[in-house]
Amino acid sequence: MDMQVIPAREGNHNLQDYEKTRKNFSWDDMKKNFSWNETGKVNMAYEAVDRHAENPVKKDKIALLYSSPDREEKVTFATLSKESNKFANVLKKYNASKGDRIFLFMPRSPEFYAAFFGILKIGAIAGPLFEAFMEQAVRDRLQDSEAKILITTPDLIDRVPQAELPNLEEIIIIGGNVENEDQYIDYQQEMEAASEEFPIEWVDLEDGMLLHYTSGSTGKPKGVYHVHNAMIQHYATAEWVLDLKEEDVYWCTADPGWVTGTSYGIFAPWLLGVTNVVRGGRFTPDDWYQTLEKNKVTVWYTAPTALRRLVSTGQGVLDKYDLSSLRHLLSVGEPLNPEVITWGLKAFNLRIHDTWWMTETGAQLIVNLPSLEIRPGSMGKPIPGIEASIVDNEGNEIPPNQMGNLAIKAPWPAMMRKIWNNPSKYESYFINGWYVSGDSAYKDEDGYFWFQGRLDDVINTSGERVGPFEVESKLIEHPAVAEAGVIGKPDPVRGEIIKAFITLNDGYENSEELLEDIRRFVKTGLSAHAAPREIEVKDSIPKTRSGKIMRRLLKSWELGLPTGDTSTLEE
Ligand code: WT7
């Protein structure tokens, strides 16, 4: 089959000569772009916000162009700097200090970003939680991280556990009247009283900054710990991959509850002082096209699942909008279908640039660059400073065109520095000096990487990572469910959907109402995005003799594939 290659984009790009830059590159040289280069004392909040606020030319530039269905706001770098100073003072007043874990459980809003940087300014570690989480998901994360302060809204407070959190000292409520003043702190009231001056806490490059919880195939979600040093790679990729320039208007659609929404929804654009569009609320095609048109977005970073929805929405909707401001499109989170790239060429007359990375990697690693040809279906090539390869299970590199573990030579600037409270889990990612991703892929003769699939049971639904164990654990809490096995089932729009196989306890009959009730139970107990779209009742769930659910077998059954080696199957 002849592969159609899309030639490099014409014009000037921030990374014009990939091969040459790669050859001469050192991350140490990149450090010269930062004010801390001399002192070594650093703070992400200074580089992303205060530095621009101190610059007479930059201070009144719009940092944040915010809109949601019921609110619009423009926030300058100067205002963001002052508001985050005020919030840092509020945190100090309540005894928060360097290294504390402070969590944000709220939708995107201007206050979110002020609070986020306030946390970094005192040297604390921010833990943003996706607003769709339900009580148990919130509890698991606050417990594991031993969070000290939680910032949330009146709408979400019902989902905040009121017990079993011995370390949680304060809850700050944003955007509403706080009725119970003994129990909660009122953001508004505190901010009015707080000083606009704050002496930022200078920290070391290796000090903690961010905790993102993410799912593996077993156990509870794990706290992936990132440090200030990551900014070096955020800065570099903002230049090379996002190709950002001073006058750009940039929009990253991801929620800051996920790593794309922090690394590329906060750090990357603001390290370069670029205007950043934030759109709250749920996805609708019209709304997204409107956001692009109204804000005259030039650079847009989104996900395949959203692009597929736009493709299926059709030309009629697209034709209503003037999207001529767009100049650069990118995608992340799941395989980018070649058909979507073809659609992008027609719809926008632009290439869509796929990028590959993970929560654990902290920043983009394998990417399609404007100055390189695109081979549709390929994730592209490693950025300068990154060595990627395909290795076997012992960490030995294997030749081109053979499938194996996608691996990255450790370390790199934005790499996670630990898994919170779980050193052995952290160690398990590394084999023979390689970080082993859990993805399978191959590399072609020209160094382009091609994604093949996950090697573990982790599910990728609409670009969001879901651990089957978490869903199974919730399912069996339902009184009707005896056992559960959960898999990702291929889906044309969502990539995968969550499918659960369950057995019922005695006295329960399989019915539509019961299955709907079970689905709702997961949705309201854990999280909407983790609720199985399909549930199938079985007489038994296949397990190994040691009692592990054989999800692989469930998947083979579902897909009508050969079942492979079942020698460990319990009878
Ligand atoms: C997993 C990581 C930080 C990115 C957002 C998701 C899958 C990510 C691609 C891509 C195919 C991709 C992988 C990876 N993935 N990007 N371009 N093509 N698959 O971060 O939630 O940590 O998930 O997402 O399977 O391991 P995440």
UniProtKB/TrEMBL annotation:
<keyword id="KW-0007">Acetylation</keyword>
<dbReference type="InterPro" id="IPR045851">
    <property type="entry name" value="AMP-bd_C_sf"/>
</dbReference>
<keyword id="KW-0436">Ligase</keyword>
<dbReference type="GO" id="GO:0003987">
    <property type="term" value="F:acetate-CoA ligase activity"/>
</dbReference>
<dbReference type="InterPro" id="IPR025110">
    <property type="entry name" value="AMP-bd_C"/>
</dbReference>
<protein>
    <recommendedName>
        <fullName>acetate--CoA ligase</fullName>
        <ecNumber>6.2.1.1</ecNumber>
    </recommendedName>
</protein>
<dbReference type="GO" id="GO:0006085">
    <property type="term" value="P:acetyl-CoA biosynthetic process"/>
</dbReference>
<feature type="domain" description="AMP-dependent synthetase/ligase">
    <location>
        <begin position="58"/>
        <end position="417"/>
    </location>
</feature>
<dbReference type="InterPro" id="IPR000873">
    <property type="entry name" value="AMP-dep_synth/lig_dom"/>
</dbReference>
<keyword id="KW-0067">ATP-binding</keyword>
<dbReference type="GO" id="GO:0005829">
    <property type="term" value="C:cytosol"/>
</dbReference>
<feature type="domain" description="AMP-binding enzyme C-terminal">
    <location>
        <begin position="470"/>
        <end position="548"/>
    </location>
</feature>
<comment type="similarity">
    <text>Belongs to the ATP-dependent AMP-binding enzyme family.</text>
</comment>
<dbReference type="Pfam" id="PF13193">
    <property type="entry name" value="AMP-binding_C"/>
</dbReference>
<keyword id="KW-0547">Nucleotide-binding</keyword>
<dbReference type="InterPro" id="IPR020845">
    <property type="entry name" value="AMP-binding_CS"/>
</dbReference>
<dbReference type="GO" id="GO:0005524">
    <property type="term" value="F:ATP binding"/>
</dbReference>
<dbReference type="Pfam" id="PF00501">
    <property type="entry name" value="AMP-binding"/>
</dbReference>
<dbReference type="InterPro" id="IPR042099">
    <property type="entry name" value="ANL_N_sf"/>
</dbReference>
